[in-house]
Amino acid sequence: MTTDPLVIFTPSGKRGRFPVGTPVLTAARQLGVDLDSVCGGRGICSKCQVAPSYGEFSKHGVTVREGALSDWNSVEQRYDDIRGLKDGRRLGCQATVQGDIVIDVPPESQVHRQVVRKAAAVRDIVMDPATKLLFVKVQEPDMHEPSGDLERLAAALRDEWGITDVHAPLPVLTKLQKVLRKGNWEVTVALHRGSLDGRHQVIDVYPGFHEGRIYGLAIDLGSTTIAAHLCDLRNGQVAASAGVMNPQIRFGEDLMSRVSYAMMNPGGEVEMTAAVRAAINDLTVDIAAEAGITPDQIMEAVFVCNPVMHHLLIGVDPVELGQAPFALATSDAMGLPARDLDLTRMNDAAQVFILPCIAGHVGADAAAVALSEEPGKSDDLVLIVDVGTNAEILLGDKSRVLACSSPTGPAFEGAQISSGQRAAPGAIERVEIDPATKEPRFKIIGSDSWSNDPDFGTPQITGICGSGIIEAVAEMRMAGLLDDKGLIGSPDQTGTSRCIVAGRTHSYVLHDGTADGGPLIAVTQGDIRAIQLAKSALYAGARLLMDEMGVDHVDRITLAGAFGAHISPKHAMVLGMIPDAPLANVRSAGNAAGTGARIALCSVTARRDIAATVRQITKVETAIAPKFQEHFVNANAIPHATDPFPHLASVTTLPSVSFNLGGGGSVDDQGRRRRRARK
């Protein structure tokens, strides 16, 4: 058995063993990891920067010790002296493998940048922002009536606008006097109205009548991606949208892995908090540049996130969320200065609002979905599924709303998939398989053509993202390449040479680019299993809510999140990710959590409404529900072992095939097992 060190790259999840002394860049290239380099490994371009992680990683089954990479060398020192390297960064061309190591490839080091699919949906929002610009004329100082400039500014706001209880943080006080005198005692005030306590904070002051615009950030802080929308606080219009991978992926792809990292590594929660705050700061600068504004025009930010991300954002150890009774440090909405969270790349006095959590495993992101989709106002029974690394599920109508979370894991994001990658140019995102010929065709991100179109050309095909693997598995089931247990058939059983032998199982080849030095992209038996586990957790969560509601069907299904916008309802139902329903009644809501964050950013009234709404939502805890395991096991079948899917049957007929041969037989045309003759 090899003793070569194990190298694990995040966020791709690709891993392999390499001899001691192998450069990190070489390991990345051999594994097909998306790590940039243009200087031939001479330490000149710095594009191969990586971030090694140390400690115990139970998710990956490794403990990374100091010395797992070679010592800092003179080439790295030279580059650091001239241009500077971020703390903890190494050059992949210079650092060599010395022991088991987990290495994160940051977004700026990736050739194919993440395509953030959590775009802003068009939505009419009644504007009632917490931060507004107000013009006032301030009384000049008088020796006979002594008072401070701030007190006279507060008096002007009271007399001209009826606003009381005005305060100013230190960053405003340091500039107030100069601004008042420059404006000849006429100033424009950026005033923030507290959502929770009614206090008014002066965020900024400008001399005279200021016609510039002020902005806010609506941030969906997910386990895998951080998506932000920059909104004009006068009219709610989205000026720019941007996103990055959550750098905490290097500590664990799913939430419980991150909780485990905090448990097993003293100070681990501090590391993760610092990483995500730094990413938000960088994202703030990037999105401001994209919109052509200065970061100090960003006056506030609204966050929605799951409970673990919520705690790591505010700097609370999430260990209690990893064990019953899953107690939150606080479930209430929070309002606080951005500087308290080390968010220093927006206005110096900017404010942060974090939506309330519903319960220990159902967070502010689910509250934002409820704010956006309003299931409690629905006449019919609606199931809302927001799929990510951790799925949030809502079920309800005017009578009652239930909520739960389900640990789907990162497979839907393209992780834990053999040829998987994040959504980036070159990734397969759409798949169709001809049921007669078993031949596939596909679309990749960055191209509008199908792979069998004459104008498809020779684009670089790099892997398969979450939407692509979901469609591929569903298409394989509809084409008879995959049986209801999730087993891939052999070439003889399926009638296609695209089903190839892979050890004791089979794989289905979507694209073979090896002749031109490209990748072999196949759906393996391990990929099928990863998707089965993810979809089973999702379906089991939905069934638990239906059990609690006392129903066996729903009227409507809303697919939210990046998944909902890019997967067809038919493919989702073929897999059994969602309960059976009329396909016409299954729709996409896009990034509903992000939309909820925008609504809260633009409306103080909405913030107060959602605080009341979450108290009326009934939480169902999947982790301790007796029937969750039963539902999970039954949902392993594709689409399901016991639940009927009559609406799905009305639009497609799934082939009745079986490839479970046990000791190694074959299957005849009617699906009967034939034993292999003994020699």
Write the layout of secondary structure elements.
Layout: E1 6-10, E2 15-17, H1 24-31, E3 49-53, E4 55-57, E5 62-64, H2 74-82, E6 90-91, E7 101-104, E8 131-137, H3 149-161, E9 166-167, H4 170-182, E10 186-193, E11 200-207, E12 215-221, E13 225-232, E14 238-245, H5 255-264, H6 268-291, E15 298-305, H7 307-314, E16 334-337, E17 351-354, H8 364-373, E18 382-386, E19 391-396, E20 401-406, E21 427-433, E22 440-444, E23 463-464, H9 466-478, H10 491-494, E24 499-502, E25 505-512, E26 520-523, H11 525-549, E27 556-560, H12 561-566, H13 569-575, E28 586-590, H14 592-602, H15 604-613, E29 618-619, H16 628-634, H17 646-649, E30 666-667, E31 673-674
Parallel strand pairs: 1-7, 9-11, 12-15, 15-17, 18-27, 20-29, 21-23, 27-28
Antiparallel strand pairs: 1-2, 3-6, 3-7, 4-5, 8-10, 10-11, 12-13, 13-14, 16-17, 18-19, 19-20, 21-22, 24-25, 25-26, 30-31
Helix pairs in contact: 5-6, 8-14, 8-15, 9-13, 11-16, 14-15
Quote the average pLDDT. 88
Instruction: Name the overall outline.
Output: globular
Strand arrangement across the biggest beta sheet: 14-13-12-15-17-16
Helical content class: 25-40%
Structural class of the secondary elements?
alpha/beta
Major sheet details: 6 strands, mixed
Tell me the radius of gyration.
27 Å
* Proportion of strand residues: 15-25%
Distance N terminus to C terminus? 33 Å
- How large is the count of helical segments? 17
Number of strands: 31
**Unreliable stretches:** 663-679
